[in-house]
Amino acid sequence: MTDTPHDIEITPIEPFGVAVHAPRPGARVGELPVATLRDLVREHHILLLRGFDGFDTPQELAAYSEQWGELSVWPFGTVLDLIEKERPEDHIFDSSYMPMHWDGMYREQIPEFQVFQCVRAPGVDNGGETTFSNTPAVLRDTDPETVAKWSAVTGTYHRETDFYDSVTTSPLVTTHPVTGTPVIRYNEPTAADDADFVNHPDLRFTGLPDDEMAEAHRTLRAALYDPAHLYAHSWRTGDLVVTDNYTLLHGRNAFTSGAPRHLRRVQVLGTPALDNPGLVR
Ligand SMILES: [Fe+2]
Questions:
Q1: Residues within 5 Å of ion ligand 1 by Cβ?
Q2: Based on the structure, what is the number of domains in the chain?
Q3: Measured in angstroms, how far is the CA atom of residue 130 from the centroid of ligand 1?
Q4: 248-252: strand order across its sheet
Q5: Cβ atoms of residues 105 and 168 within 8 Å
Q6: Chunked in runs of 10, what are the mean pLDDT values of the chain (281 residues)?
Q7: Is 172 inside any structural domain?
């Protein structure tokens, strides 16, 4: 364990990220200086705050998150309740796996941070981990020939939900909007014949011949899910997780349908807010 200048005791998470555990029962996250936590997320990409006194309401979560920056506002407000629906119209509210993507890809602005609160964990052995892939590490650890193939690819994505009907386009390999570090922006395709996957997005990839494109998807998927680059967060009730959406891709492991998995999510915009560079409409 190491100490930050503000005496916050941080513990590394494998393969990346850091955790801060409540120093005593009843400690509140609001006691921790947000500027220090923000630096931790930018450096380590994942910050787990565990054992702190939680937020009882969505309003309390939003009020806390506002200390991090301006919040993304959706038609439903700023707090998304992630909970399985009985007859979901989209996979986000199903118990299925969620393919890798970045948040805000279909919106006017891309949030820098996501703040997740675990209201209720799905329970042991019920799955439902949120998955995060460390894309700069993927690029560093992959041979240059393969990265060159990925770099030739542009993805064009179309998705229609209750909240938007948008098209976005992005090179597969691009750069972090603030630091310039190479990162990956990719919405992982799911098999078109997967009938259990509700509301398939429409994904098109250009830049390579068909056989090389198939190989690029295969090598990229393997690298994103390589245990050296993937952190799958097993939720405990009360966890607060803050993540670096400019750097990571994220998804979800499937979970047992009916398990009481309930997360809340808030998106925090960058300073200044980042206009989505790929939004076509
Ligand atoms: Fe997401």
A1: 103
A2: 1
A3: 9
A4: 98-101, 248-252, 130-134, 230-233
A5: yes
A6: 64 98 94 96 98 94 98 95 79 84 96 96 88 98 98 95 90 98 95 72 94 97 98 96 98 85 95 95 87
A7: yes
